[in-house]
Amino acid sequence: MAIDLLNLKPSVISKDLREKYILLAGSPKIGKTEFCTLAPDALILAFEKGTNARPGAFVQPIEKWAEFKLTLKQLEKPEVKDKFATICIDTVGIAYDLCEKFICQQAGVQKIGDIPYGGGYASLSKEFEQSLRRITMLGYGLIMTCHLKETQNSEGEVIGYKPDLNNRCLKIVNGLVDIIGVITQTWNEKGESERWIQTRATPTISAGSRFKYLAPKIKFGYNEFVDALREAIEMEEKNGATVVDQLAPSTVESVDFASVRAEAQKLWSELVERDENNAAIILKKIEMIMGHKMKLSEFTEDQADLLNLAVEEMREMI
User: Fold this and answer.
1) Each residue of 200-218: b (16+ CB within 10 Å) or e?
2) CB proximity list for 306: less than 8 A, separation 6 or greater
3) What pTM was computed for the model?
4) Can you tell me whether residue 301 is helix, strand or coil?
5) What percent of the chain has pLDDT over 90?
6) What residue ranges do the domains of the chain occupy?
7) Mind listing the pLDDT tens digit for each residue in 243-263?
8) DSSP state of 205
9) How many angstroms separate the CA atoms of 181 and 22, rounded?
10) Which helix (H) or strand (E) element contains residue 264?
11) Which of 72, 278, 286, 293 has its CA 20 to 30 A from that of 199?
12) 122 contact partners, CB below 8 Å, separation of at least 6
């Protein structure tokens, strides 16, 4: 978990969908799941059945949040990262509901509001956000789908479209994704259906994009979307951005608890042998890290990252 700010490189933009994060909102059976299956090396986490008519897709059904957490652990494996490039959550609204049920089960309550002082909502937001962010930090692309909510006026006419997610869920997803694409449908003079992805907010459509040059309206389809995104990125390049065909795979280093604990014991012995007053100094540094008094021997495996910070402090003392 070494950090070296002097060796940081400027960020670049890649032309592929790896490490792009997208929310697709559309009506049932409009083609959201089909879009996901066309992404290269995609793994679909099916929180609802929507792939029965799509042969050849890699689909992992998810019925409980605990199953999703087990899937996240699998996504850390190098051989899994070699197999899949994009993770698709279908649908993110159901995923959020299962996460809420998980938090209620942990607390032994029936409703999230039954957890005192708003603690349930705080735990739900933290669990959901950290889980989604884990996928992105592992270097996968992320496509999430949700249903579309239509707002009608008093005469029954549709006057607005937005992702059908509750406000807490939408806030988390909106903060993570690069693009919120709203799928709309029109009919031409022949009565034929035409589907579009709207990527810019209008007075009636809640969409958005971090890519300045992405077309506000794209013909619906995976290839059409990728082509439009590539054109937008090429425009960024023309205006001075550094662009690459594909990003190098991200790596997330994990701390080996046994190794860090062994090093901590070694450093403790060396520092205390050098000067017995170092014992009090080390314990004070640990108290600053943990927020309370604690011995090196009391760190648990779940606190490996925090123990590693203590080791860094002792290295500095050496």
Assistant:
1) eeeeebbbbbebeebbeeb
2) 289, 290, 299
3) 0.73
4) helix
5) 45
6) 13-243, 257-317
7) 545 555 555 556 788 999 999
8) B
9) 7
10) helix 257-274
11) 72
12) none
**Token pair of 64 as six digits:** 């409980």
pLDDT averaged over every residue in the chain: 85
* Terminal alpha carbon distance of the chain: 19
What's the CATH number for 13-243? 3.40.50.300
Tokens of 74: 């699998």
For 21, the 3-state DSSP assignment is strand
Kindly state the average pLDDT of the residues 155-180. 88
Cβ atoms of 176 and 211 closer than 8 Å = no
In a 10 Å sphere around its CB, with 0-12 CB exposed, 13-18 middle and 19+ buried, how is residue 149 labelled?
middle
- CA dihedral sign, ordered 315, 316, 317, 318: positive
Tokens of 285: 């540094």
Tokens found for residue 110: 């029936």
- Nearest one of 318, 222, 202, 204 to 270, comparing CA atoms: 318
CB atoms within 10 A of CB 64: 12
